Amino acid sequence: MRSFLSALMTLVAMAATVLAVPALWLDLRIVDQDGFVSTVAPMAENQKVKDYLADEIAAQATARTDLPIAGALVRPLAATYTDSEQFRLDFADVVGQQHAWLFTEPAPGEDTSVMQLDITAMINRALNLTGTPNEISGPVVVELTNGASGLEAGRYAEVGSQITMLARGAAAVAVIAGLLALLLAHRRSTVFAWLGLGAAAAGVASWVIGLFFADRAKQEVAGAESSGRQVAELIIDGAYSDLTQVALIVGGVGVAMVVVGLIGRMVFAGRR
To answer: Transmembrane stretches, by residue range (predicted)?
Structure first.
């Protein structure tokens, strides 16, 4: 009976681990706003992102003045600004706006088909590099997606809550079932190896799931204008890269557990 229960708990722990690892990553790095910002914030160093926002700053500043050369004057200031530490902080704020648009239920009557980002602070910081107060009144918004993209405000609000519940539940089941499997086992080294196999499988599953959702996310932003789409795709690639690193770590730990378990089985052969 102990062997049967241990085997059952081992299978439960392995299955729960395969669910828990990608779900926890999604919960901590995508659903959670602070986690999402920290995942995407390094994209502020990407030159394509800098160029896109510098162009938007110059275009929006030009649209609010009668001087035809305003764009040519502002663009160098915008380029200087995007190389600053302040830009990295402001970019994190813009990323937070994206997350809020996707994961927060929209207010009644709000346009849910277009993701608009407020870049007023970015424009004013660039203009202030002249050394004189040249602030413009906001809000100044740019459209990162349009109605053709298929995205809607609050689209992931409900699924985000479901992922959080799944992640926490699966993690709890994996830990409890794994401990019970080890406590009940006659050969704990064997069970430990099987649990490691579950962790390795979770790493592979996380990588495959990330590959699928990265492709799906790119399809959803395919309808955005060219520059906005490229920036969105860079953000998606950055998130996928982060998940790939997690998958490699978890998979590596799983393989190590398998090796330790097999060595333990050989060393303690014939013992409980």
So the answer is: 165-185, 192-214, 246-268
- Structure tokens belonging to residue 220: 């959803």
Q: Where are the alpha helices (DSSP H) in the chain?
A: 2-26, 33-40, 47-63, 70-82, 85-103, 120-127, 157-184, 188-220, 226-267
With the CA atoms of 202, 41, 97 and 19 taken in that order, what torsion angle do they form, in degrees rounded to the nearest 10?
Answer: 0
What is the CB-side half-sphere exposure of residue 150 using CA atoms within 13 A? 8
- CA dist 27 and 4 (Å) reads 34
Q: Where are the alpha helices (DSSP H) in 27-69?
A: 33-40, 47-63
Q: What is the pTM of this model?
A: 0.84
For 9-30, b/e burial (b = at least 16 CB within 10 A) is bbebbbbbbbbbbbbbbbbbbb
pLDDT for position 227: 67
Rounded distance between C-alpha atoms, residue 272 and residue 267, angstroms? 11
Q: How far apart are the C-alpha atoms of 195 and 260, rounded to whole Å?
A: 11
- State mean pLDDT over 176-185: 95
What 3-state class would DSSP assign to 116?
Answer: strand
What are the φ/ψ torsions at residue 143 (nearest 5 degrees)?
-95, 115
C-alpha to C-alpha distance for 102 and 145, rounded to whole angstroms: 12
Domain boundaries, the chain: 2-31+154-267, 43-149
